[in-house]
Each structure stands twice: as C-alpha cells, then as structure tokens.
Amino acid sequence: MKIPTKNFGLNLKDKFSEKIPEKLKSLILALKGEEIVSVRRQHWVVLLPQALLTLGLVIFFLILLIFSLTFGLFSFILLLVSFLLVVVVLIAYGYKSYQDWKDYLYVVTNKKIAVVNLAGSDIEWEREVITDSAKETSIEVKVPLPGRYLGYGDVTVTFETSSRVEPITFEKVPNPNGFRKALEEAGQS
User: Is residue 163 within 8 Å of 86, Cβ to Cβ?
Assistant: First the structure.
C-alpha cells in the first residue's frame, strides 16, 4: 500500500517527508542510482522558544503602555515608539528563525544519509555518510517527555567506516520511530 504524500511527484515512502524543489533534487541525488527515501525538517517545537519570547515581550510592553497612560502623554508616546521598534526587531528575528528552520533538512536516500542546510543559493552538507562505504551499527531513538505528547524525538545513527565510528544525530525529528523505519529501509536497499 502506498502512503499518500504531499510531495509533488516525489513518490516518497515516508509520509512525513518534505517537498523539495526540482533544482535541489538534482544536487541531492548526486550518486548513480540514488533515490530519495525521506526528507524531513526538525519538529516545529524548535520555533516555540522564539514564539514564547515574542509573546512575552509584546504582553510586557502592552502592560507598560496601559500603565504609562497614568504618567502622561509623553511617556505613552515614548513607550509606544519603543514598543513598535521591539515588535519590528522581533518580527525580523522570528522570520530569520523560521527561514533557518525551513532550510535545515535531514535527507535519507538509498545511498547516503545527510544533514543539509539550504541557506542561500548553495547546499551546505553539514554531515554526510555514504552508506555503501560504511556499515550501520545502530539506530537509537530518544524521545523526551514533551516529545511523547508532541510527536518528536532524536534519532542517532552510528556508522562504522574503515577508519572510525561516526554517529549522526537527527535532533527533534517528527515521528522519530517512523524516521528510524525509513533509515532501516534505506539500509536494506
């Protein structure tokens, strides 16, 4: 049974996979006979601290604005201008955090496992292991208590190459057990 995906023609086996633009697909699939098994982003929970900080500062400034009315119009205007400046800075920082999250991908193909950063017009391979030249020794899934309820966890894959043992940790992955299954499928092909 095929799992329906939201990936424009990519026919991925993993329903949590993200869509990738065609121009990046050709850069990711560099090895002969390579096929994408899974592409994931970190869980949305990594954006939560930024969102809570923004919400807290907005509420703080709104309370200050309300209390500043008792001190006169000048203090109200001064606080209003500083509030607007803080909101603009927080929106810019929030947008940058969102873009960083969106551009950071975990890629599993039938020939390699990689952590990829799509920042800018280039692909930056932060970690990459060619599975043909390495022996997978273990896949470990760690799910913290909040992750049990929100559906995320860390997956660590350990590879043994001819010269060293090389672990790759995929942090805050949505549905970590499903991701582990995708990694196991990639290792079998």
Answer: no
Give one DSSP letter per residue of 45-63, joined into a string. GGGHHHHHHHHHHHHHHHH
pLDDT of 48 over the 70 cut: yes
135: left (phi over 0), alpha (psi -120 to 50) or beta: beta
Q: Are 131 and 186 in contact (CB under 8 A)?
A: yes
Structure tokens at 150: 């929100």
CA distance linking residue 44 with residue 108, whole number of Å:
20
How much is the pLDDT for 145?
Answer: 92
| Mean per-residue pLDDT of the chain | 76
Where does the pLDDT of residue 4 fall: very low under 50, low under 70, confident under 90, or very high at 90 and above?
A: very low
CB 170 within 8 A of CB 155: yes
- From 135, 145, 172, select the one nearest 156 (Cα to Cα): 172
Give a three-class secondary structure readout of 143-175. Answer: CCHHHHHHCEEEEEEEEECCCCEEEEEEEEEEC
- C-alpha closest to that of 38 among 67, 55, 18, 62: 18
Percent share of the chain, pLDDT over 90: 5
